[in-house]
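User: Run a structure prediction on this.
Assistant: Running it now.
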Amino acid sequence: MHITPAGDLYVVDWDTMILAPKERDLMFAGIGFGSAQFSPAEQAAFFLQGYGPAEVDAAALAYYRCERIVQDVYEYCLQILFTEGESSDRRNGLEQFRSQFEPGAVVDRAFLAIEALPPGTG
């Protein structure tokens, strides 16, 4: 956490820090992670406030959203297929895996990002 001299509080997540374009971070805004309290457009607008004025590369955003899903599928498969016996971890992993493919969930939103690309870029 960081508190400015003016008393503003900022929370910084340093977990799995990598050097990447802003689209790598932006993929999380509006894709269905976390609260549904705000629309995807509102989530993206809030997120971009931290970057200031910035153009978003739609192809990079679509790439990172799809890449994240592939990583999640891999991790859930490990959890489901290689957890010994009947455990709640295995059942939870299967439920999380299934939830990614529900209408309006992360897979749908990743496909929407791809479909929104200008012709010839996807």
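The chain has five helices and two strands.
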